[in-house]
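Attaching the record inline, Q. Sequence:
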Amino acid sequence: MGRGGFHNTMMVFPQPRSAYLHIPFCHRRCFYCDFPVVPLGDRANGAQSRSVAEYLRWLKTEISISPPGPPLSTVYLGGGTPSLLSVDQVEQLLALLRAQFGLAPGAEITMELDPASFNAEGLKGYCAAGVNRISLGVQSFTDSLLAAAGRRHTCQHIHTAVALVKAQGVARWSLDLIAGLPGLTPALWEATLEMALALAPPHVSLYDLTIGEGTVFDRWLQQGRLSLPTEATGAAMLDRAAERLEAAGLRRYEISSYALPGHACRHNRVYWAGGDWWGFGMGATSSLAGRRLSRPRTRHGYGEWLQQQPRAPSPLPVGAKERLEDLLITGLRRSEGVNREQLAEQCPLPLGALMTLSPRLERACAQGLLCSEGPYLRLGQPDGFRFSNQVLADCLLWVDELFGSGGAADGTSPVAPA
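Structure, as predicted:
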């Protein structure tokens, strides 16, 4: 290949062994939420809603027109609020996946639950249908902060929900927490961590608040009505959370994820490892043959899109540059980072080009933000995780340099590594 560089060749990848199903319905839209959701109202019964019934028909149609593939190792029912569905509705969706693809022995089947949206009977039914991992959208243990964020549940709902999960014998479950909520102080955050750890969760997902465009919080921020913790205070809260969670034995295996041994989310690790997955439903994204395919984010748009699909869409294979960008951005989120020998095989690229970092990334290594050890490249802890957005942006610039100016324009421009 020589100094002339390498080409952005096209790669083909195996069919997915994971599936994500988007259930967009909620009682209400939280003030920070920019996900594709459909609010039904606080008193709505999702299981009896005509809108829900129609959407589930569409969702089943999309699954049914997909080509059969290997048995699924992971399934994730996300939202929205999947627990607004009845046990029968969840059972039908999982039965369809089993008929279309099959479920591998020991498959991980995760379902997101809102703490105020299910009871013991419902949880027992979900588990009987095949759900074996629960993700609870807790966000905070302070009622005033929950109300200020537009959440429907209270701290009491959280404790009741966790008690139900434990009583049902669900061994694999997770709590979601959000740092940086309006009105959150270091003292309240410390209390949140204390109450969360007292429940002994085997997994915690910890997110920093982001203000999505078009959200209620975005509008309030523009109007000067939103009081947020300072950037320094928010960073200190995340550092304190990492300290407390790791002291409790929950290992940080991804930027936002902590787990006891054996409790990491297998489905999410598919995303971060650069694997492929089926994505079904409004706003869902799939990765087929290494290329992303996104559905419309509105219910009406999704219904129209589905009518235009006599069979499942077949995305074209992805180019080497786009594949490398995706593998770096997702893979560096993991504590183990990426193996450049594997990147060279997956893209494919000359290993020598990947082993030579740009001056910008060399500085990141010198500052402890990035670690380069043999073929492995990973974020430094804790500073690399804290400043991950900047480090990942620098990695994308490095990819641009590898492929040369305009390398992404036609997918074939050669690279001339220095």
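The CA atoms of residues 76 and 272 lie 15 Å apart. Residues 1-13, 405-418 have pLDDT under 50 and may be disordered.

More tomorrow.
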